[in-house]
Design goal:
The protein is of the alpha/beta class and 265 residues long.
């Protein structure tokens, strides 16, 4: 069994819960400790029972609650060495025994959960995505990246669940009020993925096993859930993956509240 829930998603804060029979972990802590604990409680998880906190990268919308979560719940915190160096001042003091290193391309194991890291192209200190493997199921989490590398495409083929960034609609972004340097950063190879890019990517990696696709990290100003959902569903229908007789479900993660709960038994 593996459970996944998006606790919050977007530039205002990111956190994801992944659990199995023997392991409970938090991916990113971009909310206050109080909000994370409340979000976990709303899905029946006690924050005190978490086994670890894994950080994808050092941006504040992924780490702002990491220090308090580590200190309050005595959590082991895993991050790549460059992420630790970039984030440690903002996280505050964490006991040395709780500071653990992630490979940027490798794996670590918990009781009944293997976590594989995937290097991502993003303007952060050594960012990573994740693949979670229980004995029967696989879940991939790939957000905050500017383009899809061949390695990413190869590693996330035919996951049971794929959580992927659908950050912006290109037309909304280009015609919006952001200053040009910020638009250029978002559109760059180390920025964020557009609906169009994600739609094409999903049509290539969704497979017979795939039960759920979650669209995450939508921009508040340069996208809408309807635009992201429509772009992806249209592409998946054209590629033959989204048909009435198939089990595939497409969801959009909520910005501020837990959403897209999935339990694979």
């Amino acid at each position: 069994m593996i459970e996944v829930c998006m606790l919050a998603s977007g530039s205002s804060g990111n956190a994801v819960y992944v659990g199995t029979e023997k392991t409970k972990i938090l991916i990113d802590a971009g909310l206050s400790g109080k909000r994370i604990a409340a979000a976990l409680a709303s899905i029946g998880v006690n924050a005190a029972e978490l086994d670890a906190l894994l950080l994808s990268h050092d941006h504040i919308d992924h780490i702002c609650g990491a220090g308090i979560m580590a200190r309050r719940y005595k959590l082991a915190v895993f991050a790549t060495q460059p992420t630790w160096q970039a984030a440690k001042k903002r996280m505050g003091t964490i006991a040395a025994a709780q500071c653990c290193y992630l490979p940027n391309c490798g794996s670590i194991s918990f009781a009944d959960l293997e976590v594989e890291t995937i290097p991502l192209p993003h303007d952060a200190a050594d960012p990573v995505g994740f693949i979670f493997r229980s004995p029967q199921h696989t879940v991939a989490l790939v957000t905050d990246l500017g383009h899809i590398t061949p390695y990413i495409r190869q590693r996330v083929q035919d996951m049971d669940c794929l959580i992927v960034e659908a950050n912006h609609d290109e037309e909304m972004l280009l015609n919006g009020q952001y200053p040009w340097p910020l638009k250029k950063r978002i559109l760059g190879d180390k920025g964020h993925l557009s609906n169009k890019t994600v739609a094409e990517f999903l049509s290539q990696v969704v497979g017979p096993k795939t039960q759920q696709v979650v669209l995450a990290h939508l921009s508040e100003h340069n996208n809408t859930p309807q635009l992201a959902f429509s772009a992806v569903c249209s592409s998946l229908k054209k590629s033959g993956h989204l048909r009435p007789e198939k089990k595939l479900k497409v969801s959009v993660a909520a910005r501020h509240t837990p959403s897209c709960y999935l339990r694979l038994a």
